[in-house]
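S., here's the first fold you wanted:
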Amino acid sequence: MFHRADTYRHWPRVTLGSVVVLSATALILSPSAVAKFGSYEQCVASNGLPLNQVYGVPVSIITPVCHQVRAGERWSPSVPWIMNIGFERVSPGFTTNWATPLADFRGKLKAVEYVIDPGSPSSINRFFPGHAMWVGELPEAAGLPAVNTVSAGSLEPLPIGQHVVDVYWDFAAQHCDGFATNLGANCLPTGKTLVSRITFDVVAL
């Protein structure tokens, strides 16, 4: 059972035991519209471009807001993380060998893991190297560095129907975003952490 924890910078985070889940529906990162193509929905960013063009990946992108994939298409979940330019404030005990939160994130993230339809007989695990993450700035948070799971690796087409994907980030050491000292809202722990769970539908063309 999920329980809502602290909210910071429009990122609601919920805790499952020692696991942190980051909500990709955050206001600062939400697309401005959902474009309709028949029964298919496509996320459109604030600059009017589809998310796959914003991130430069040739696959369907799913978020908790845009949760449809066309049958037969490869796809990727969007899980963003925005950081401060520098370590303005950090949690007690946090240490790093990198000068910026972005460098710290990239230096400590070892891998991205997707678990598709966890707990089902057809459950699938896929692993990708951490360095394959998208890095840039988002229009809604210009001037601040951001990363996103979306380019870590695309996933194979799934049967028509409802599916779930759990996204895990595996860190070599604790990472903090440099904004504040709240461990639950501003830091990610050592080891594998569930950062997003997205329910989505595969629909007929």
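And the second, which I think is the more interesting of the pair:
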Amino acid sequence: MSILKKPLITEKSTKLSEKLNKFAFKVTKNATKEQIKSEIELVYEVAVASVNTMIYVGKSKSKYTKKGFVNGKKSDFKKAIVTLKDGHTIDYFGADNNTQTN
């Protein structure tokens, strides 16, 4: 099973990647910084300078419906901000994906 779940592509993470060469990923909760670093280097073939991680606690949600109040909770997740060395970048939407067929 892979440590990386998916890249986080948001407005904030896009600005980080353009200006500071940092990329955000959603990872498994028990992943260490060294495991994340080795997985990124293996999958994307780039050199990683540093890894910062944070754990987000899911928010509780409630809404009123015809059947009464419904309570729930969003799931917890761990986010990793990966800083790449100069000259390296990650292209999520590579040139291979942009080909058109007639």
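Why I say that: Residues 4-87 form a domain with the Alpha-Beta Plaits fold (CATH 3.30.70.330). The longest helix spans residues 33-44.

Talk tomorrow,
H.
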